[in-house]
């Protein structure tokens, strides 16, 4: 099995952030908001804390009850000594959780998930500032996936990075799957995007923009890259015989979405992206600080 572990790629990015912080003597501080007893969220919070400390970013993890999260976000938004915010989900574990994202100041949104940044992404507006002098913040996990793929032969080192590639994404969430599909399409790919209701084609270069539906069978047989992030054991795992020969397969769910045979058949198998997601958050923290908080 040809497996790509993201740890080495993430380590290089973390070292780059660390070197810049040390070189310029930057004092970046971020806050994490933890309002859940979910073990996965607690693990993620501890991992981001250690990653921040490793690169020289001050990290304050604040544990609160769900009822006080809104007030806490407002306080941190006003606090000029804090330059970024993590929110660890789930909080209420329902539609109310999505509302918390837009309570954050976009200038402190480490994960790039406020509607301010997402609207820029969907419009392919890559800059911010009065004079478009700042690069826009991109969502951490979708960008982590693209950076990992950039280390493979799927990356075309000229023109649009994914031009000519067909890519299937099983996940159309507003947090990962949909932004990822648009980012890939903005970079030239033809994307088949799947959720529980089936698959649609996302091709931003196409002249017609109406929904075009696609079957799982067709999508997988055509796809050079297959990306999955379905956190359900009821998902029908992708089988070897469904894949295009030498397809690159990447799983970002906590549950493996490919059968062992599919993992073996893949031209390259990428089992997780977590370390790279956190490294991207560190880079976003540095970028937000440089853009909006550094005193000149």
Explain how this protein is built.
- The chain is α/β, with parallel strands linked by helices and about 300 residues long.
- The chain folds into two domains: about 15-105, 3-Layer(aba) Sandwich (Rossmann fold), CATH 3.40.50.10860; about 140-275, Rossmann fold (3-Layer(aba) Sandwich).
- It contains ten helices and twelve strands.
- The strands form three sheets. A seven-stranded mixed sheet has the order 9-8-7-6-10-11-12.
Order of helices and strands: HEHEHEHHEEHEHEEEHEEHEH
SS elements, strand count? 12
Q: Based on the structure given, which CATH architecture of the largest domain is correct?
A: 3-Layer(aba) Sandwich
Oligomer: single chain
What topology emerges from the helices and strands here?
Elements lengths: L6 H18 L4 E6 L4 H17 L2 E6 L5 H10 L5 E5 L7 H6 L13 H8 L4 E2 L5 E2 L4 H10 L16 E5 L6 H10 L3 E6 L2 E5 L10 E2 L1 H7 L2 E4 L19 E4 L8 H6 L2 E3 L3 H20 L3
Parallel strand pairs: 1-2, 1-3, 6-7, 6-10, 10-11, 11-12
Antiparallel strand pairs: 4-5, 7-8, 8-9
Helix pairs in contact: 1-10, 6-7, 6-10
For the structure shown, list the relevant keywords.
alpha/beta, 296 residues, Rossmann fold, 2 domains, 7-stranded mixed sheet
What is shown here, in short?
The chain is of the alpha/beta class and 296 residues long. The chain is built from ten helices and twelve strands. It has two domains: 14-107, Leucine Dehydrogenase, chain A, domain 1 (Rossmann fold, 3-Layer(aba) Sandwich); 142-274, Rossmann fold (3-Layer(aba) Sandwich).
């Amino acid at each position: 099995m040809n497996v790509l572990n993201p740890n080495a790629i993430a380590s290089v990015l973390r070292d780059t952030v660390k070197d810049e912080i040390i070189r310029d003597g930057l004092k970046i501080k971020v806050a994490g908001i933890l309002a859940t007893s979910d073990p996965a969220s607690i693990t993620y919070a501890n991992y981001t804390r250690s990653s921040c400390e490793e690169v020289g970013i001050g990290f304050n993890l604040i544990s609160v009850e769900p009822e006080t999260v809104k007030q806490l976000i407002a306080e941190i938004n006003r606090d000029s000594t804090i330059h970024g915010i993590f929110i660890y989900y789930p909080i209420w574990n329902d539609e109310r959780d999505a509302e918390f994202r837009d309570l954050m100041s976009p200038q402190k949104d480490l994960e790039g998930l406020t509607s301010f940044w997402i609207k820029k992404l969907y419009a392919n507006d890559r800059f911010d500032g009065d004079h478009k002098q700042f690069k826009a913040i991109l969502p951490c996990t979708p960008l982590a996936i693209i950076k990992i793929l950039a280390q493979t032969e799927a990356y075309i080192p000229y023109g649009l990075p994914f031009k000519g590639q067909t890519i299937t994404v099983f996940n159309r969430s507003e947090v990962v799957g949909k932004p990822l599909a648009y980012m890939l399409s903005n970079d030239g790919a033809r994307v088949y995007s799947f959720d529980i209701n089936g698959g649609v084609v996302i091709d931003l270069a196409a002249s017609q923009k109406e929904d075009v539906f696609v079957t799982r069978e067709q999508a997988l047989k055509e796809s050079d890259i297959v990306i999955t992030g379905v956190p359900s054991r009821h998902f029908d795992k992708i089988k070897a015989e469904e894949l295009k020969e030498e397809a690159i397969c990447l799983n970002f769910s906590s549950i493996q979405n490919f059968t062992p045979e599919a993992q073996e058949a893949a031209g390259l198998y990428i089992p997780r992206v977590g370390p790279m997601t956190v490294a991207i958050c560190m880079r976003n923290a540095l970028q937000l600080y440089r853009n909006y908080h550094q005193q000149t």
